[in-house]
Amino acid sequence: MTDPLTTIKENLSKLTNAQRIIADYILKNSSEVAFLTINQLAQRVNTSTTTIMRLTSNIGYTGYSEFQKGLQQLLRAQTAPQNRLEVNLENVNKDDLWGNTINHHLSHIQKLMEQLTKPQLDEVVHKIISSRQVFCISVRSGLPVGQYLTHSLNRTLGNCNLVMADTSDWVDDIINMDSEDLIIATSFPRYAKRIIDFVKAAKEQGVQIVAITDSYSSPIIEYADTVLICDSISLAFHNSPIGAMVVADYIINATAIGQSEKTKKRLDKVNNVLTNMNYHFKEIETE
User: Fold this and answer.
1) Could you report the per-residue pLDDT of 158-178, keeping only the tens digit for each?
2) Whole-prediction pTM value?
């Protein structure tokens, strides 16, 4: 069977007016629909679940579940690194790749300023400051964001831990978490299942969840209390963490400055330990 979006386009003439409205919404919002329940889709389009079921049946699927699985498989294929690279090779100007890279990130940072508000970010900072423990969870392309947040927030507050969902035995951590704890989860396509499993289990423990992800169609959205959308598109094949790193940098700045006295005391203590162990390089004194 062809992919679900192509199947819809090929069968538009067979659909009723009500079904065409649903089909049009799916074609324009496929990445969102891939993770919506049938009830959620019905609410979005202001229709009934029965009409949606009839649509999927008319285009050759046994039901909405089978159609949605096909849509998810299509999106996974589209976000596969090799496919992204192939598409980008057709559009990128190889003769000015350096300039294109700079302009690409500048436009994405400008977009961040438009879509993320200071109150929204400061709500995250407040949650960090008021939490007993902060856990930054990430894998692969999201790992630089988790590492950066963990290192700097821990220097400020001393209660931040990095969890690499692919390698750590996080079940032992989750059973001790509760509503006084906070998770900051970074999740980019193709959305590692281990992160979703972690966040879902933590949510059941009452843990607050902050999600840093690329779109509102991301599967982690379902479990997040606060969502920070950071586009991860690159000019090649990979998920770029640059936008999310800018957001992380603001969170670190705001946390340190908002707790300036506490931060200064901790930094003094850390510096004393490092000095006593001769941690930093010193130039050789010459006569």
Assistant:
1) 899 999 887 777 787 888 899
2) 0.70
